[in-house]
Amino acid sequence: MEAAVMREYGGPSVLGLEQRPDPAPRTGWATVRLQASALNWHDVLVRRGTYKSPLPHVPGADGAGVRLDTGEPVMILPSLGWGHRQAAPGPDWQILGDFTPGTYAELVSVPEECLFPRPGGYDALQAAAFPLVGVTAYRALFTRGRLTAGESVLVLGAGGGLAPAAVAMGAALGASMFVTSSSEDKIQRARTLGAVDGVLHFAPDWVEQARTASPSGEGFDVVVDAVGRWQESLACLRPGGRLVVLGASAKTEQLVDARQFYFGQYEIIGTTMGSPADFASLLAFANDYRLPPPVIERSFSLSDAAEAHAWLEAGQGFGKIVLTVDA
User: Fold this and answer.
1) Residue partners of 131: CB distance under 8 A and separation at least 6
2) At the top level of CATH, which class does the domain 134-270 belong to?
3) What angle do CA 53, 57, 60 make, to 5 degrees?
4) What is the pLDDT of residues 76-123, one digit of tens each?
């Protein structure tokens, strides 16, 4: 099979198209002939060596295609070995493409519990772009964040794949969704998905702007922080509000004023991708609330994986970037 392979850690140029052995059969696993593979920021961290993936390595977490043994169109949940406890993943949990060869390839092998039917109305690109950001946003908002209709949510960073998914889900439920962004254009695009409004997060007073824009004028019920700006995020909450954190691209270590935290009665809730049970609940939610397919910003061929990574790192787009696989 052909695959985009990294033989060293580094920039986008370390990705190159190569011939690789087809996946070997494994009990409890199935092989998928991929039609599309979606990029995530997690893939960039894999490429840079953050997770010390084995080399040479095929990255890629998200994908959609056809299951070889049944011919069924499927999409892949890249959450491997979650375990029996729903509160948090077990010790064997990993993300597809970290240590197990991923979806930047014509073929990929995954546990059968991680394969789900493609939703009606989704093409291969949309199905490939749905699982990681979809289940991550769903778990952040509902499983962990306990969001209910009528509450207000601020999502930091409107341009990535996660924020559009979170905005669409929260708006579908009946929550008031707000975003931060680096551009007015991305805020406007978030409005088309159901966001009420947004603020520019490079403004020195953006926290005050956000609190003023909140429905109560005293802050949000929930803030979803996928970048690692805890101090500002906590300041955007109403008293008793919930901060859901799931990323650290801006800062990996956080300093929190303890008195501010406990007098404010805040919660800081950690979350990560999600379990097969979370994903099954997401699919039911998507059907019940007629959730629109993910926003596809741009597609590249598998042979142009390096160019796709460069585009992702430039951070100018809105929505998902997808590789098409012509097997």
Assistant:
1) 62, 75, 76, 77, 78, 116, 279
2) alpha beta
3) 85
4) 999 999 999 999 999 999 999 999 999 999 999 999 999 999 988 899
